[in-house]
Amino acid sequence: MGKFYITTTTPYVNADPHIGFALEIIRADVLARMHKALGDEVFFNTGTDEHGQKIYQRALEAGKDPKSYCDEYAIKFQGLKTGLNLSYSNFIRTTDEHHLTAAQEFWKLCEAKGDIYKKVYKIKYCVGCELEKTDSELTNGNCPLHPNQDLENIEEENYFFKFSNYQQRLLDLYESQPDFVIPEFRQNEMKTFVKGGLQDFSISRLKTKMPWGVNVPGDDKQIIYVWFDALINYISALGWPEDQKKFAEFWPGTQVCGKDNLRQQTAMWQAMLMSAGLPTSKQVFVGGFLTSGGQKISKSLGNVINPIEWAEKYGTDALRYFLLAEVSVFEDSDVTVERFEEAYQNNLANGIGNLAARVATMAEKINLKVPEQRLGIREAVINKLKAFRFDEALKFIWDDVKTADTLINQREVWKLTGEEQEFVLADLVRIIRQIAADLVPFMPETSEKLMISFGNEVIKRGGNLFQRIEK
Q1: Keyword annotations for this protein (predicted)?
Q2: Is this model's pTM higher than 0.90 or not?
Q3: Rounded distance between C-alpha atoms, residue 356 and residue 180, angstroms
Q4: How many domains does the chain have?
């Protein structure tokens, strides 16, 4: 048994949590729970990104101090732990005092390497992305991810990071670790991007224009650019640079992100780590966007879905199931209430819920006893999860649900009597016990309820797992 570190990205606190981030953090939670079930010591990190122009502008618009504004939204993101039944062990805020110190220490290492310099420059800047944009990245003069926001034209003297120094080292990283970025086609995208040549990027802002951020070491007129600062949370969360023991034990870690974070997580951050003389990340899993009616779900477009509302209405495990089983792992997926309710009705209420109710009712009626078993997650499920195939892992489990249903109907178990009925029902109980064990990472509440009903020698009915949706 070893140590396992997994982290999500840190979302901006400029709006309430939406379903796209819920998808990201639930996927990370499944991987964390799986490793914990295997006996690993798990460090699961998430948190909030609280610096930058976007946050500063929102705070001013709300007539609030930026830190007070961030405090209000950080509480909402912390609330996901209960609302989505998450098992994270650390919640970092980039306004935490330790993180501020770590960001400055990281800067000093890159500066000592000779990778930070100052120059005057002009750029087109998307506040929504908090990134510079070249003309080739624009659609009709706007950022395609934030088409409703005007670009800002910036001309000032800032510090730059020598990204261009790391072209070959990044290509070597991708070559030596073919599964560094999952899925493979995203890694190929990054190879193409890096082969095209890397441009040094700005890593500071003038304090007079944008005062909300981490101070640049040795220059009180500049603050550290939000992306440079935020990425460092992945190691500051481990106590770096002071706690070298913990850092050495858990780093490098696995990162979960959406495709809009691809460049930052798999190239910029890795080059920064190389510059600071630290190991690169272990692996980066990249998911697609969630869409609604073919349009990306995003805060800037105003078409977000509140995951907590769905969890409160249908149950947390129902939401987790849908996002893990019915949403494409690597490609964009359309999310609608209709799709959600169809999956709920077919696979939860009429699927595993109905199976558990039928078997428990028949077993309790004859006071069935089945010797207790110690079961773990099956290797096939574990292997699917290690490949980030959440959907295929759940399909494998649901094949057992279908197998059990078929067995009930073909043998007409309700008509059987005596030892024959006991024998078939005992078989069904063992199938359900294995389903419960396999569901531990995905649907922890459902797994626990199944074990309460079927895990002991005497089988007893529990409450309905999933109520049918009445139209």
Answers
A1: Aminoacyl-tRNA synthetase, ATP-binding, Ligase, Nucleotide-binding, Protein biosynthesis
A2: yes
A3: 40
A4: 1
CA 282 vs CA 229, 336, 344, 398: distances in Å: 20, 34, 35, 31
Confirm whether 236 is domain-assigned.
Answer: no
What pLDDT, on the 0 to 100 scale, is given for residue 300?
67
Q: CB neighbours (10 Å) of residue 396?
A: 16
Q: How far apart are CA 438 and CA 210, in angstroms?
A: 50
Q: Residue 64 falls within a domain, yes or no?
A: no
Q: Give the pLDDT score at 144.
A: 86
DSSP classification of residue 180: S
Closest CA to 117 of 236, 265, 216, 264: 216
Q: How far is CA 320 from CA 272, 325, 394, 440, in A?
A: 34, 8, 11, 12
DSSP string of 71-132, one letter each residue: HHHHHHHHTHHHHTT---SEEEETTSHHHHHHHHHHHHHHHHTT-EEEEEEEEEEETTTTEE
Q: Classify residue 375 as left (phi > 0), alpha (psi -120 to 50) or beta.
A: beta
Pairwise CA distance, residues 111 & 217, whole Å: 10
What is the 8-class DSSP label of residue 378? -
384 inside domain: yes
What's the pLDDT score for residue 295?
81
Mean pLDDT per 10-residue interval, the chain, length 471 residues: 96 91 97 98 98 92 95 96 97 98 98 96 82 80 85 88 98 98 98 97 93 96 96 98 98 97 97 98 96 77 87 97 97 94 97 97 96 97 98 98 97 96 98 98 98 96 87 66
Task: Please report the pLDDT score of residue 471 as a whole number.
Answer: 66
Give residue 299's pLDDT.
67
- Dihedral, 14, 287, 134, 151 alpha carbons, nearest 10: -20
Which three-class secondary structure state does DSSP give residue 37?
helix
Q: Quick one: 21 exposed, middle or buried, by C-beta within 10 A (0-12, 13-18, 19+)? A: buried
**What token pair was written down for 17?**
């949590």
CA dihedral 200, 201, 204, 206 (to 10 degrees): 100
- Comparing CA positions, the residue from 272, 106, 257, 31 lying closest to residue 173 is 272
221 CB neighbour count, 10 Å cutoff: 11
Phi/psi at 268 (5° precision): -60, -50
Does residue 358 form part of some domain?
yes
User: Could you tell me whether strands 152-161 and 116-126 are parallel, antiparallel, or unpaired per DSSP bridges?
Assistant: antiparallel
Closest of 3, 5, 80, 1 to residue 281, by C-alpha: 5
Determine the structural domain holding residue 441 and report its residue range.
336-454
Q: Which amino acid is at 95?
A: T
Within 10 A of 344 (CB to CB), how many other CB atoms are there?
A: 25
Q: Residue type for 288, please?
A: G
CATH number at residue 402: 1.10.730.10
Neighbour-count burial of 436, counting CB atoms closer than 10 A to its CB (0-12 exposed, 13-18 middle, 19+ buried): buried
120 - beta bridge partners? 157
Pairing of strands 41-48, 204-206: unpaired
Specify whether the CB–CB gap between 257 and 265 falls below 8 A.
Answer: yes
